[in-house]
Amino acid sequence: xxxxxxxxxxxxxxxxxxxxxxxxxxxxxxxxxxxxxxxxxxxxxxxxxxxxxxxxxxxxxxxxxxxxxxxxxxxxxxxxxxxxxxxxxxxxxxxxxxxxxxxxxxxxxxxxxxxxxxxxxxxxxxxxxxxxxxxxxxxxxxxxxxxxxxxxxxxxxxxxxxxxxxxxxxxxxxxxxxxxxxxxxxxxxxxxxxxxxxxxxxxxxxxxxxxxxxxxxxxxxxxxxxxxxxxxxxxxxxxxxxxxxxxxxxxxxxxxxxxxxxxxxxxxxxxxxxxxxxxxxxxxxxxxxxxxxxxxxxxxxxxxxxxxxxxxxxxxxxxxxxxxxxxxxxxxxxxxxxxxxxxxxxxxxxxxxxxxxxxxxxxxxxxxxxxxxxxxxxxxxxxxxxxxxxxxxxxxxxxxxxxxxxxxxxxxxxxxxxxxxxxxxxxxxxxxxxxxxxxxxxxxxxxxxxxxxxxxxxx
Length: 459
What we know:
- The chain is α+β, with helices and mostly antiparallel strands.
- It has 3 domains: about 20-185, no CATH class; about 225-420, Nucleotide cyclase, GGDEF domain (Alpha-Beta Plaits, 2-Layer Sandwich); about 420-459, no CATH class.
- About 55% of the residues lie in helices and about 20% in strands.
- It contains 13 helices and 10 strands.
- It has helices at about 20-40, 50-65, 75-95, 100-115, 120-140, 150-200, 205-210, 235-245, 245-265, 290-320, 355-365, 375-380, 440-459; strands at about 220-235, 270-275, 280-285, 325-345, 345-350, 370-375, 385-395, 400-410, 420-425, 430-435.
- α1 (about 20-40) runs antiparallel to α6, α3 (about 75-95) runs antiparallel to α4 and α4 (about 100-115) runs parallel beside α6.
- Mean pLDDT is about 85; it is low at about 1-15.
């Protein structure tokens, strides 16, 4: 499990003044301003009812929000700001449009819109205030107070300055908290990336990529897919293990696995596991280019691995390793069960099925430097790869003997001396391996070919 640091809550940082406290401060300042205006005789004394209502309103609104569990709703926050805008319009009317108190009341409301809400709420809030002023002017009548007393101006100004300063302070603290949270999240992200890349070395890159991009869930599930399965081991490795020191043997084996893994990834193979000196790879999952292309990629990989062993043998010989190590390979193509096997707390992404057993059996039957493939693999690559018929074998899980073939090389890499000739088109199919044609059968084959030529000429 990737360790997690304690990060501040970005939605509601601990240092941020809640909207509730900001609203209490704003309406407290309004109440003080209203009381000052009444005491100085600038406002009608009958407006004294507005003072307790102004002081109680934030608490009533807070109770309603908490009771209906709306405190985490963005829509609720925006709607309550618009309600404040409507009440600000009412306050301006109750102030009898007294210039100084009205302007500072509108300033506090406008500041709240942009700080707590957004630019959209700022525009809507001002529209709501304008509509509110018009409606409440029609209800209470339009009255214009005279010049505000100095003490009322001072109280209004100080109240507005206090509100803006306190709100700005907590907004600054919020910005600091968000910056700190961003820095810690970035550190956590870098740590997670570093750890994920380390963990990726325990998984095939394709599987790792599909998990970390969200394409695949990490849960016990499997599916049936047609895959090309590859098995290989090193002929002579057991004897070599008895001669070499464990440290040198480990270095040799890791070099071999590293070289072969690079070839496998080059062709898009999913490396399943390393077992001793054996490698298990499959093509067709998590991504597939179709059974034919997947199988051809698998066979191409096998041919390149066989050729690359010549380079490794020369390298090992220069290091004093005299044992001629050679690779043996088995490949089959067919439907297997692929996915996560194991337990909820320990899974293994692998494949099972009779085709897996067949590929393993083919690898075990291979001679040093030989690549044996199943019939289905042969049928998918025979147009690009020259193969030799190796007869049939009996494999557990298969009701009938299984035809197998030996890969020679790519057709393009074989000169005019090749023994394998094959051609297939509409109405015509030919397959011949001259190395397997006996002297007794040559004459009948030649006569048959001559009849075909004569027939084609007549047509």
